[in-house]
Amino acid sequence: MTTLAPAPVAPPVSASRPRRRRPAPSLVAAIAVIAFLLLAAAWPALLATHSPTANDFAAALQPPSFAHWFGTDEAGRDLYSRVVWGARESLLIGAGAATVSLGLAVVLGTAAALGGRILSGVVGFVLEVAFAFPALLLALLLVAVLGPSAWTQVLAVGIGTAPGYARIVRAQVLAARSSGYVEAAVALGHPRRRIVLRQILPNALRPLVAIFALSVGQSIVWASSLAFLGLGVAPPSSEWGALLDAGRAYITRAPWLVVIPGLVIVALALAATSLGGHLRTALDKGEKA
Question: Cα(224)–Cα(227) distance, rounded to whole angstroms?
Fold first, then answer.
């Protein structure tokens, strides 16, 4: 009698788990840079290795070493500690200027898109005139009139960069106004004010979350440029632009006084740009979903 071997049983097919996407290295690097600088701004004494104001003329203009990671300045002050302590003022100036810029952009862009024919024409003309001037030149004029200070930097950079963002807001508001959900709200007889506040603005201003991150980085670069030209916060402030301004007199003898603060500014600008780009991509995917 022939015995049949049992047929092999296929192993149960396990439900495939969706793979988690690893975050992009650029996003991880951006978050790491921003987190470190935010920590430095909140608790500088935790990260600094020396007092930012302690003079040691015997150790003046020393290159980077184990004792002084970023070297020392003309007064023997530790440059790394000054960069750490300057993070708070630099980030506050950048965030303040970005807030002023986007606040003006929302008001002007919304007025240009939703105002009547006269208001839209006037606001549009003002934006075109302001946009014709280089933003840095406009900021320089404002600082020259108001005088150099941290608050002047915030206002000058914020006002100087607002026209470009106002154009973006205007385009977003016009796109939201012509969308299907707004047309449905109009057909249902909803009041215009309710449509603007509950339908148009929330959807039109959503990209500003990503734009704010970009604007902070841009504002810090511009504020540092003003300080480098002698139109920013005056010494002995350790704001990064002030460090650049103070170090340019020693750029041939001690180039690290300019190179290192400049690299910190560039690193923050790149991190903010990368974070803003990833936020914008995430928001676009959310809208498509």
Answer: 5
Q: What share of the chain is helix, strand, coil (3-state, %, to 5)?
A: 70, 0, 30
**Of 236, 225, 218, 238, which Cα lies nearest the Cα of 84?**
238
CB 247 within 8 A of CB 254: yes
> What are the structure tokens assigned to 50, written together?
């020396």
Residue 262 CB contacts under 8 Å (≥ 6 apart), including other chains: 244
Question: Could you tell me if 24 and 278 are in contact, meaning their C-beta atoms sit under 8 angstroms apart?
Answer: yes
Query: Model confidence over 52-71: pLDDT tens digits?
Result: 988 988 888 999 999 999 99
Return the closest-CA partner of residue 243 out of 56, 45, 103, 256.
Answer: 256
Q: How far apart, in whole angstroms, are the C-alpha atoms of residue 279 and residue 23?
A: 12
Q: For 83-133, how does the pLDDT look when each residue is reduced to its tens digit (9 = 90+)?
A: 999 999 999 999 999 999 999 999 998 888 887 788 888 888 888 887 777
Instruction: Write down the pTM of the prediction.
Output: 0.82
Q: What is the CATH number of domain 29-35+69-288?
A: 1.10.3720.10
